[in-house]
Amino acid sequence: MTNRIVLFLLLGFVLFTSNRTLLAQGVTTSAMKGLVLDSKGEPLPGATVVATHLPSGTKYGTATRENGQYDLLNMRIGGPYELVVSFVGSQTYTASGIQLALGKTFESNVKLNDGTQALGEVLVQGNRDGQINKDRTGASTNINNTAIRTLPTISRSQEDFTRLTPQSSGLSFGGRNTLYNNFSLDGSIFNNSFGLDAPTPGGQTGSQPVSLDAIEQLEVSLAPYDVRQGGFTGAGVNAVTKSGTNDFKGTVYTFLRNEQLIGEKVGDVTVRNPDLKFNQTGFSLGGPIIKNKLFFFTNAELTRRDDPALTFRPATSAAEAQAALNGQADGVSRVLQSDLDAIRQRLISVYGYDPGTYQDFTYRTYSDKLLAKLDWNINEKNTFSLRYNYLKSYQQKPPHPIAIAPSSRVQGVNTLQYSNSGYTINNNLNSVVGELNSRFGERLSNKAQLSFSAFRDFRELPNAPLFPQLDITKNGTTYVSVGTEQFSANNVLDQNITQFTDNLSYFAGAHVLTAGVTYERFDFVNAFNLQRYGYPFFGGLDIDRFFQVTDRSNPNFVDLNAIATAGGTRRIKSVDVNVAQLGLYAQDEWNLTPNFKLTLGVRADMPIYNTDVAQNQQILNAPLLDSDGKAAKVDVTQFPKATPLWSPRLGFNYSAENGELTTQVRGGTGIFTGRIPFVWISNQASNSQFDPGYTFQINGTARDFKFPQVWRSNLAIDQELPLGIVATLEGIYSKDRNAAIHRNYNLVTPTERLAGFDDRLIYPAAGPRITPGFNGPDGQFSFLDAGVIVLENTNRGYQYSLTGQLKKDFANGLYLMTAYTYSQAKDVTSNPGEIAADAFQRNPVVGDANQPQLAFSDFGLQHRIIGAAGKRFEYANKRLATTLSFFFEAAQGNRFSYTYAGDLNRDGIFGNDLLKVPATRDQINLVDIRDAQGAVVVTAAQQWEQLDAYIRQDKYLSERRGSFTERNGAISPWYTQLDAKLLQDFSLMANDKKHTFQLSFDIQNLGNLISSDWGVRRVFANNRFIETAYLPSAPNTPVYQFRGGQQTFINNTNLDSRWRAQIGLRYILD
Questions:
Q1: Whole domain around residue 64: which residue ranges?
Q2: pTM confidence score
Q3: d(Cα 1068, Cα 996) in Å, to the nearest integer?
Q4: CATH number of the domain encompassing residue 97
Q5: What is the pLDDT of residues 75-114, one digit of tens each?
Q6: b or e along 926-957 (b: 16 or more beta carbons within 10 Å of the residue's beta carbon)?
Q7: Would 82 be classed as within a structural domain?
């Protein structure tokens, strides 16, 4: 490995010391380029080109080269700019009003006539996001500051603006896992790199790491053929912060919400809103320290909120519980209030443990953030910026919704929780970034950036006695969750991330050559003590059995207090994990003709694992099998080999003008290399040894494992239409090259099959594990409940999308955009878990759990329609202004799987077996449902009638009769949502300054305010409606019971289906 690293470093040295000419343009900035001609139409070398950023006085200057071309790089985004082109003996050309978009190049071609009199000034009114742009090749979306200020947003988060990307679904882009994006702030890494819960810092606490008021522009790049952009197989999302100017500008603001600003009606159901308090207050201030030289910008923001914990109430009777299951009692759970009271009283009386209340409690969110930035124009050739940001936040949360559970714990129709079942998560951050931009003559420039971020995340448990977590089930699915949250005891994560990037830039005729280097280092200290206080009933504890095992007079009594006490004596585990990544890249942007540009580049990224783990000799000697059934060894001390991952890319842009209208054809193809959530590497380090009497899982990584890679291609046509409308048709296709997949090397290869209609492969009745466990160092037996989970690669998987879009910017301030996207995404696993074992267990299969089928992904929407519109109306001599804006979305594609409630294939995993839909009564061995006294409640014949009716009313199940359901094969109904924003400005002039008081009103899901039947989302009531079990007399012939309702989908009465509003008050100094 050392030799490979040395060779890689030598390659980087050769690239930077070669006499080849080099160039780079940072993705945190913008650029200008163009061609200057003399009066005869010939290229004019030596002409002086100066672009001035008028708000700050920052100048960018150069001289045209021999071919008359000029390039200005690393320019501040936004504007307005003034461009001045001059040459001795020629008229001077001046253009003003130029606005620069993030990552885009503004092109201005100039013809200078003979004479010394200046030409009249040209006012530029261009499309800020550069849809028609000769440097645009791949798929990307730019969100400028006007959109950030005026479009609707309740959460005031980046997600409310990245949804303008047609190929998005939440924070998933192009049908990829949200953890496969790369979020950056001012070009530096700003991910939750460890990969727990949320892809951005502060995401676990529901907090934004940087205030929206500090963001100047956003860009979402799905297929950038610029090789400087990497670290993702989903999308690169880059936010650039604001900077100070020569004018003092500031704002003070507050935003408010309460329960009276939340709708209460979903269809015919009235949902009572518990008390809600939300307040966000902040300020921004920027200006000069030294005019034209040194500038500052700062923003501070506080957020305080209390959210209702539960929006479903328990059923007051068995009839009401059944109505809830049948989809006839929206907002009501099947969980009986009498059961909740009985469970609580039993726990208090027997164990002295109070699980808390189950109604009318709230979850609190607390967030403080600060951003401070300095920009220094050292001289006309060098600029420097320094940015610091800080976040301190926490949020109270319910127990993990799906990890290591018999089924979802999410409160709703099937499940409720108590208040002491949750935890508090803390996310804190300190980050600093320095960036130096330098220009050397007319040909060479350099951009260097160094950043360091320290993330400190930890959890706190409720002020209640420690107690094992119990997932109490009813009819095979989670019913009530109680006890100390199994993932939160002594859970601490410290992350230190260091990044250095240097890009060197040079122009050579029609070529723009690029080379650069980036180094990233990730240091993690993780204390994760899973199930420290016990999780004694894997697969759940049936409610009837709960009352048996908690009865001291019953022979099956379990002393749960003793389990918690014993768990508290286990050692607290903490591990250090270090991973680095070195990247080198080179690129040629070749302007073959004035209308055709070709971009060719190659990038190499090499992960380097610097983590030491003690050997586990028992695991090393254990007889294990790989996914192909061949003998395998797992060495927990070994991490993947340091191997360069190559990413060649090619992009092109061709434009043709037809009168005043332009047709642009663009596209490209290339490989993109991402990262994995580093928690998967930490799993290997933290689970490498045996705890006394407890292990749960061992983790390993294949020696030839590679970071995820996709081969992505796109082709697009942008067409200017009459009236200034730009139409776009774009297709994107991605093919997995090195997708991540988890496999269990401790599973035997299944060879038996079920008897009868469902003939899937099943594991032996004696058990699926090759090795059930080992003796720990203290002699106690440690069970391998989840197995030996190994991280590997697969190339099976693809995603594609086709998008049509129309955009129009009107001179009077009106903006319109609409787009439709059809997409499809398939994989063998969507990696639905942070813990490696969980990612393996929650992947539905047919038969062999180590051989998952290619099926629909968890991510992406099949159909998505979006639209955005905005208009500003000024009146009363511009002292008053009203802005109206809207965002609309209609989509279908939230997918889910139909699985059995049980362990049909006997792999030891509950609920991961895909359903086989019977076509006739004789294809499913239904047995009577009996009560606790043995009396028949529902006969097998009655169950078939109910099941057959249920299948008939479900379109997907009807189509799958006689066949297995597919993973994520079922799809939820269409949903629609219309959001709106109203801004009312009151302005006056005083002391040459404009003072504005602004009222804002944001409303999400406006349709639900107009009608309780509009904007309502439909969700599945139960995707595990058939319970399965084996009888001792027939080990390969399971029996079934139908536990479903009458219809698949019910109205979701949660906040997604109801209108919400937010009121804001702001003072602006401009």
A1: 2-127
A2: 0.88
A3: 5
A4: 2.60.40.1120
A5: 888 889 999 999 888 888 999 889 888 878 888 899 888 8
A6: bebbeeeeeeeebebeebbebbbebbeebebb
A7: yes
